[in-house]
Amino acid sequence: MKIFSASQMRKADEVTIQSQKITSLELMERAATQIFNVLHQRLQGAPIPIHVFCGIGNNGGDGLVISRLLVEHGYHVTTYIVNFSDKRSEDFLANYDRLKSIGTEWPTQLKSEEDLPNIKQQDMVIDAIFGIGLNRPLVPWVINLIKHINAARCFTLSIDVPSGLYADKAPDNPEGVIYASTTVTFQLPKLIFFLPETGQYSQDLEVIDIGLNRDFIAQTKGFAELISKNEVLSLYKPRHKFAHKGDYGHCLIIGGSYGKIGSTVLATKSALRIGAGLATAYIPECGYEILQTSVPEAMVITDNEDDYISKIKFDFDPSVIGIGIGLGIHEKTTQAFGEFLKQNKTMLVVDADAINILAKEPELLQFLPKRTVLTPHPGELKRLIGEWKDDFDKINKVKEFSAKYDCIVVIKGANTMIVYKDDIYVNTSGNPGMATAGSGDVLTGIITGLISQGYDPLHAAVFGVYLHGSSGDLAIQETGYQGLLASDIVSNIGKSYLELFKQPEPIQPQA
Question: Minimal CA–CA distance to 52: which of 41, 28, 36?
């Protein structure tokens, strides 16, 4: 599913109005009616006091339509106009008049902190103060209104986006943003729902189709792409009846140091579990028995040094190399990695200490093969690209880095992002239990194993991140969040493939 920017969403509205020969007021009515339908289906006429807070732009206009429909269906509604400016949009004014015309109480005007209404925890709030068009800091009394709404801790539904969020940067004041229980957003998701700094403001997200022009959406390249089961199914490469292990490549996992051999075990096992035909682990001598015992399906090459890797030499041509897990940054290891990069022509997946070495010696970046996949955690990413102001600045810096070195960067997190130049892919699988030691090593092995099978590096990163998250989702059904181990993720990789083709169970009619 595409993710559009605020300007692209505005353009989609314009094209829809022109192509369908409707007015912006009619489009607003249609969109707000869809939200009312969601509410009405869930509330079923429940006598809950509903507070609708409307701004004075088009988001406020949506709120006024919803208020009118709620009143017409017998709900107990109080509507408030948040007067933060003297300007009003035309569609807001039209819907303000429509609400007054049905004979209900006129909306309550809010102009300062003295006007803040009483909201109880058992009430409901509909937030229609600001939409994606917000482009300036909020006035102090509106920030206090938002704090007042949040302090009530009642169920809060935000229209399109939680008020106080910008579409393309972090909020000026983190306390000046609505904490929405649910956000119902129009037509397509927005990037702010998936970033650490801004995603926290909406516990639940629902995307509703308001009938925007489908040709425009199909023909317009999105700001980013949201990756779920439907999107990755097209990437899957089925196996044929007469396949043999040579058809699925030979991957090499290089890593490990004294006390950190487990990381290489996890990556090697993951590469095999994801489907690589053959896997070899290149490790220091101290890990030989551990690797051979833990992953009997793998082959092992050892360095002459016992505790760390001091050189990287092997006598075969791997399909792809995953390097860095548990590697350490010993002086001889760092030197060996640099010498390896300068002569290597094989596709790479680079993780952990290999990234730390690149950050310390950035002149080595020029030797990365084209379309190398890097999988840093936040700390490693910061060492690689420098500090960032907010999540949007981070994404821009990653895009610049990716373009400069022609590499694919996996930004690990709650909604892991895959960035290749100007292309951004936002993953939807995974859970908080995966914030555990070794989870990243498993991901490195998965992506390496997919490239080994012939997947394009970008497709391997997108597909691998999804399968990694899906494996974690399957694992927590037995372990819960706290009990999840990285090895549980590995054990569920096979099930994550099966889940791709699992059909939803039909809804059984009630007796």
Answer: 36
